[in-house]
Amino acid sequence: MKKNLLRAGLALCVALVGPWATAQDFPSRPITMVMPYAPGGPGDAITRLFAGAMQKQLGQQIVVDNPAGASGSIGTAKVARAKPDGYTLLMIHVSHATNTAMYKNLPYHPVDDFEPIGRATIGPMLIVARNDFPAKDLKEWLSYVKTNAPKISLAHAGVGSASHLCGLMMMNALNVKFNEIPYKGTGPALTDLLGGQVDLMCDQTSGTVPSVKAEKIKAYAAVGKTRLSGLPDLPAIAEAGVQGFDITISFGLYAPKGLPKPVLDTLTSALQKSVADPEVKQRLDAMGVTAVSPDMARPEALRAHLKYEMESLNSLLTKAGVKAN
Ligand code: MLT
Q1: What is the mean pLDDT of residues 139-154?
Q2: CB under 8 Å to 17, separation ≥6 — which residues?
Q3: Taking CB atoms and a 6 Å cutoff, what residues make up the pocket around ligand 1?
Q4: Residue 84 C-alpha to ligand 1 middle, in angstroms?
Q5: Which residues are within 8 A (CB) of 293 and not within 5 positions of it... i.e. 6 or more apart?
Q6: Is the Cα torsion angle 179, 184, 185, 188 positive or negative in sign?
Q7: What is the pLDDT of residues 182-218, one digit of tens each?
Q8: CA–CA separation, 55 vs 58, rounded Å?
Q9: 3-class DSSP string for 27-63
Q10: Span 19-65, pLDDT tens digits
Q11: Cα 227 to ligand 1 centroid, rounded to whole Å
């Protein structure tokens, strides 16, 4: 009798202390950071940079995994189903907000099924084209696309992705309709742009600046009102009188809902140190991207930003009558 009581008491202690003890020695094994778009794209570049920086802070390997498809919702669903122990994380941007409006049977909710850890970056977007696109500057490009739109292919990473949203805003602002070609990420889309298989793309600088600077693709404008410090001769689209076409892309880090508080605090601290890391800032700067300040690399800031994007961008998509399925 006594033995059974002792055994039951021990089992109860393990059950109560187990998760706490696990959380206290976190991380004790490698972490997976999911980037739900294909390798070689702007999100992958940013994710690998933060995986390396946070690995240094946490003293554990961080492996990047790219389960791509359906505008990031396949990889995002994988994280929603993972154990909330801190060993599976999600690095994602605006599509965490827009996919809810895009996909009827999304197997997760962006707020209810995730624990925000913090914001990481903010970055601009560029209008780029295959190198032999028949326009030598922004003025010629505007004239050409307005008269030839149905013959022009626009690559993007799926309905609700950053490149799709940018393309949608561009078509709305110019009152044109391109022939949309979806990919599993703008990494593979850029490969086809470099090869001349597609004509245009509206993409983040973290995926396109190296090819622009190497003159392998043409950039016609920075999206929005402001020129990029890294491409000072490139006009902003607003300089050509195009209004209402402005979007920046912010990446944030999430875990599955139910993350123990000590684990959340450890991950938030590692993210805050990474955004403040001079090497991270310098490498982001080379991509035309800015690290957020440490006070934005916290759960409350990411939660607020997701709310803002869900409210502001979904109205744009609904107005445009856009639905994935
Ligand atoms: C990527 O990394 O492929 C992009 O972030 C996809 C997108 O355009 O949203």
Answers
A1: 97
A2: none
A3: 37-38, 41-44, 95, 157, 161-163, 185-187
A4: 25
A5: 275
A6: negative
A7: 999 999 999 999 999 999 999 999 999 999 999 999 9
A8: 5
A9: CCCCEEEECCCCCCCHHHHHHHHHHHHHHHHHCCCEE
A10: 555 667 899 999 999 999 999 999 999 999 999 999 999 999 999 99
A11: 21
pLDDT of residue 245: 92
Q: What does 173-199 look like in DSSP terms, one character per residue? A: HHT---EEEE-SSHHHHHHHHHTTSS-
Q: Are 302 and 116 in contact (CB under 8 A)?
A: yes
Residue 322 has pLDDT above 70, yes or no: no
Atom 3 of ligand 1, residue of closest alpha carbon: 185
Token pair for 137: 């500057």
**Distance between CA atoms of 210 and 82, rounded to whole angstroms?**
35
Domains contained in the chain, CATH given: 31-122+249-319 (3.40.190.150), 125-240 (3.40.190.10)
Question: Which residue do the tokens 């990889």 mark?
Answer: 75
Q: Which residue has the higher pLDDT, 12 or 80?
A: 80
Residue with tokens 């993210």: 271
Better-predicted residue by pLDDT, 318 or 109: 109
Query: Residue 10 has what pLDDT?
Result: 65
- Residues contacting 193, CB < 8 A, separation 6+: 128, 129, 130, 155, 199, 200, 201, 217
163 C-alpha to center of ligand 1: Å?
Answer: 6
